Amino acid sequence: MKQTLNIALILVLAMNFFNVAPPTEFDKYDSKVAILKFKTEIIDYGTITQNSEGKRRFTFTNAGDAPLLITKVKTSCGCTVPSYSKAPIQPGSQGELEIKYDTKRLGAFTKTITVMSNAEGGNKILKIKGNIVASK
């Protein structure tokens, strides 16, 4: 009986010790987030002639309250080349994502651009589309 009482007392003391633990890991971090807002998510080149200028820009704003960092931009094919700033975009500031499409190819096209960042909601998918006709 005395041994059972000692074990119970040790258990009570141990439970009290663990209840007085420091704040959890979640309490240590800020709840600020970056929010990536694009002016448009689709750029339509329309009908353009072969070998014409293939550069277009997606403009965006960091609508959050934490710096936005674009970590990677992935395109659906090698004919689309992205260019973007690696520096953090501060809250309320704007940035640009430049896309260069290879206009040597003829015909209709639709390509996707995946923007990976620390923004709320994860990856953002953008599109470009158009039709390239032979120059006269």
Shape: elongated
The strand line-up of the biggest sheet is 1-3-6-5
| Helix-and-strand structural type | mainly beta
What share of residues are in beta strands?
35-45%
- Computed CA radius of gyration, to the nearest angstrom: 27 Å
Q: Determine the N-to-C terminus distance.
A: 102 Å
Number of strands: 8
Report helical residue fraction: 10-25%
Describe the structure in brief.
The protein is mostly beta strands.
Q: Explain this structure to me?
A:
With 136 residues, the protein is mainly beta. The chain has one helix at 2-19, and strands at 36-38, 42-49, 55-62, 70-75, 80-84, 94-101, 107-117, 124-133. Strands 1-3-6-5 form a 4-stranded antiparallel sheet, with no helix packed on it. Strand 7 (107-117) and strand 8 (124-133) form a beta hairpin. The chain is elongated and about 100 Å long. The mean pLDDT is 88.
Q: Which SSEs are present, and which pair or pack?
A:
Elements: H1 2-19, E1 36-38, E2 42-49, E3 55-62, E4 70-75, E5 80-84, E6 94-101, E7 107-117, E8 124-133
Parallel strand pairs: 2-8
Antiparallel strand pairs: 1-3, 3-6, 4-7, 5-6, 7-8
